[in-house]
Design goal:
Strand content: 25-35%
Number of helices: 3
Helix content: 25-40%
Structural class: alpha+beta
Largest sheet: 6 strands, antiparallel
């Protein structure tokens, strides 16, 4: 077996394992990119509180100033089944191709605030859903 086939086979097994462990009703997972290049990752969005986005990371609530957020990324859950499309699903998961990305870098504060409000409307936190 060539190295590229071994790599694809490994990716396929990884994707199958991840898909099998990920429940369908898993909450949205998010990542924030801040203006200093740091990331706040594996979070759940909670609410907007004034000029701060409140998020949950593990069992801790945190806050990110809206003015400092340059990107909001919803980490897409990739479902992969053997025999349905080859290793493309695995590559999408590894490269973030299934993510929903909101680029706020070029926005002023008011536009960022409106964008975050829209994100929360499109993807309400799990505890706010009926």
């Amino acid at each position: 077996m060539t190295r590229s086939l071994q790599f694809i086979a490994g990716l396929t097994l990884l994707a199958v394992g991840v898909a099998a462990q990920t429940p369908r009703s898993s909450p949205d997972r998010w990542q924030l990119t801040m203006d200093d290049g740091n990331y706040i990752w594996d979070i759940a969005l909670v609410r907007l509180d004034g000029d701060q986005l409140v998020f949950r990371q593990a069992d801790t609530l945190g806050r990110a100033p809206i003015a400092r957020i340059t990107e909001v990324r919803r980490i897409g859950v990739t479902e992969f089944r053997l025999g349905e499309g080859g290793a493309g699903g695995a590559m999408n998961a590894l490269t973030g191709a299934d993510d929903e990305v909101f680029d706020l870098a070029a926005m002023d504060y008011d536009a960022k605030l409106r964008a975050v409000q829209q994100i929360l409307l499109m993807h309400p936190p799990k505890d706010a859903r009926p």
